[in-house]
Model the fold of this input.
Amino acid sequence: MAAQSEGGGKDDIKTQFVTREGTYKLMQLSEYTKPTRVPYNGQSNTPVRASFIDVMDETASPERICFNVGRELYFYVYKGLKKAADLTKPVDKRLYKGTFPTCHDFNSIWVSPESVRLLVGFTAGQIQLIDPITKEPGKLFNEERLIDKSKVTCIKWLPGSTNQFIVSHVSGQMYVYNEELPCGPTPPHYQLFKQGDGYSVHTCKTKSTRNPLYRWVVGQGAINEFAFSPCSKYLAVVGQDGYLRVFNYDTMELVGSMRSYFGGILCVCWSPDSKFLVVGGEDDLVTVWSFLEKRVICRGQGHRSWVSVVAFDPYTSVIDDESLSSDKNFNNSENKDIMQDHMANGSESLRNSSDSSKSLPHSSQNITTYRFGSVGQDTLFCLWDLTEDVIRQPVGRTRTSILITSANTNAVQTIPRSNNIAQKANSVSGGEHLPDSNAHVLTNSIGNATGKFATLSLGERKEVQKEKEHKRNFSLASRNSDKNSILKSNHVKQVDESIKLLGTCSCPRLEDVPLLEPLVCKKISCERLTELKFKEECIITACQEGIVNTWARPGKAQGLSQHTVISPSASNGGMYCISCSFRSLVLTALSCGNRPFSDLLRKHKISKATSFGVVLHDDVTDKRRNSIET
Amino acid sequence: MDSRNESTAAQKQHTTLWSKADTAKQVWAVHGYKNTLYCIHDGTPIKGNNASQLEKEIGSEQLPANEHYFGLINFGNTCYCNSVLQALYFCRPFRERVLQFKQHQKNNKKETLLTCLADLFYSIATQKKKVGTMAPKKFITRLRKEYELFDNFMQQDAHEFLNYLLNRVSELLQADKQGNKPKNGSNEGQSKSEPTWVEDLFQGTFTNETRCLNCETVSSKDEDFLDLSVDVEQNTSITHCLRGFSSTETLCAEQKYYCEVCCSKQEAQKRMRVKKLPQILALHLKRFKYMEQMNRFTKLSYRVVFPLELRLFNTSDDACNPDRMYDLVAVVIHIGSSLNRGHYISIVKSDGFWLLFDDDIVDKIDSSAIEDFYGLPSDLQKNSETGYILFYQSRE
Done:
């Protein structure tokens, strides 16, 4: 609570904060914003987001930044902790009319100092693929709004793909596009492809292949964000109906879900090892959900309004050395590889291939403490530590120690579920094209571990129920039967049954799981915060007003060289941080090497009139504008 | 082709909403100078068009069978009343009780505020047409007769009216039960024996816990409420405002608390938490702040977000239903820059979609348009369209 009052004063905007690893400092000169600062009127409601790409040129600043402010989209050289690029000279700037950019994503494979591929989603539903370096005419998707008329909420390249991407809309639908395919002159007709609890997947019913390849209808109401697991295999989707749903992307099976305490979920992020998900939303909470155990393990209270972005900090996780070495007989080299992947990719879209043998959310890394951050509409920035004691807490742990016995009962009731689901997931993946032998072993072992715990507490169970859980006892029984029916009927449960979820591991009562307090809770802006990214040497935040800020990590403010390792400082284990540049360089070389850039470029040179009112003004080259308007 | 039409319709819908709001502002801008603050009601044929357009927008066959959307004509600054009436009409349990009352009312000769309300609701609910306008003349006349504060053409506080209406209706019901007719403005029936349905719906209880810092004795006192008034802060959520309502306050210096155990004035800590959660939770945002220097109320246009779903965090340990889930069903919105200068409208949820009632005008709005009523993130502007009273209905 002390942290809460600290962020209090209205004009008290912090420019630094301290954690156990040191002092983080706002780099005042590294600020990116619109070159001409007009008085802010608070009118624009599209969140300001920032995307980054490492183009791997030989200069000291190989990174590029793209951010949207109102109807404008900017593309600059990103200089990290150093003084920002000349804001009056953007590499590219675009101004849109009638429709505003809402989100964007760089393709992390198809990248070179001469060319990048940037996807942009818009308020009226359209999608644009542009290259802000070559400034070649881009491509438009859903241009006539035949596929979806509602606002684009999130857009991402499919992991490991140079041509497929996913777009989510306010309409509650997600579409898979292939940028090489046309969108067709008529609205698509769909046929059901796959169906499950609260979602369905459709394909286009046409002779020739066209966009969208797939349509996903997920939950009720808007999809607010989605995220691929760092292992590329799972897709997490959060929406206005208050659900987090996790799918096996390839098999299109729902593998888990949770419910917010109340209200829509606005943002989601995977832990670097794909074991946990953190979500934030309209209940002003951050909620951590364990993917392996399929349960909410804790909530965090500290925000004073809705949480707009959550992100794990892959560079500030504490890793247990011992368990790493004891893992040796478990295919260690590969595990290390995955760890590197995860560490390097962090919360951004990943770049490793979707090689299924690698893509397991398994416990090779043994991160003992996870760091994550959140920003909200309350202008507050929070950091949270997800520590081992919280992670290992049995289900239903209460904050008061007196109630530990009752916590055990809760553990009993929930174990059958996690076990069953784990087995189910295994059978599913076994039946389809992914031979997950590793996952099988792992999920089972987890099930056994918790199972042991369950039997231990069985003896106490009856007494406790009699003594303390009078009321709960009844609901406990009903909950169990509820769960059984859920399992039997292939997860058929209605969204309006969400009340019944209260008290289950999908939506525990407030007192059933630990309630974390933020490690750091600071007011860092006078406007709503809309972006948060963790990088190796800095943290990036952005606010609704259109200011992108860079915060130097401890010891980085003095301008050290770029690819250094954070010195270990935590008590046991220390912090790891692995530079990714070389790896991604190789990857890029591999994926693009046998296909000359020029060829690719020529292939995509389809210029079209922009009927949805996108006039691509460009201050830098007039040539491009002309070509697009024709 | 098809898509184009739809998109323009959607755009139009949005512009109607805004232009209307703008008009309202302009009206106030013009009349504000003379301090003759009338909500201009021009009985032009617009409303006829509007009604049919609403039908078109929703689609006649999609209009729910038993639902009627009737705008209420403004009788000179009565938008505070119209907006609250509409919000209450779309609090289904409240409407049902009022209509039940109407049914069981046997040749009751005496006209009261409740009978007028029942007649108004009944006449809306029994209209042949699904959409249209209604003149709540009888109700307004009665209101002005009953309570001198409202007996003028001044702009009134919608919250004050809601409070008055609920208390008055409850009083009348209590009096009915006891069989004696209330005299004009009487305070009879204070000995509350049994709660009336107004209390059943709106009444909650909060526990006022005071802990003496000297002897550590905690004394708690329960108090009933029909609505909760919460302080607002910039860029917060209603959840945070409610938490603020229950935050611990230290009573010291002048405000020392008389401890019964210590038999003296002591420093103490005080907090209020909700013990019984009402079926309909009415939340009043304290957006009007009295400024002594200016000798008038100024409006806090802060951006306070309110979700469509709500649970309370500030419940007491002995609360019987602490995790009740609420759904937002109606919002009374204040437009303008101060208490005496402005306009009230309301948005309500009916059958899965949202409607905006601006006196006699009814519009369908998209649920994403609700964010336009959260308030302003910058403190510079005062003129705003902000949620003022939120009505949350319990799901079970």
Notes: The first strand of chain A starts at residue 16 and ends at 19. The interface with chain B takes residues 10, 40-42, 45, 124, 144-146, 149, 151, 170, 187, 222, 242, 261-264, 282-284, 301, 304-306, 377-379, 498-499, 502, 509-510, 527-528, 544 of chain A (CB under 8 Å).
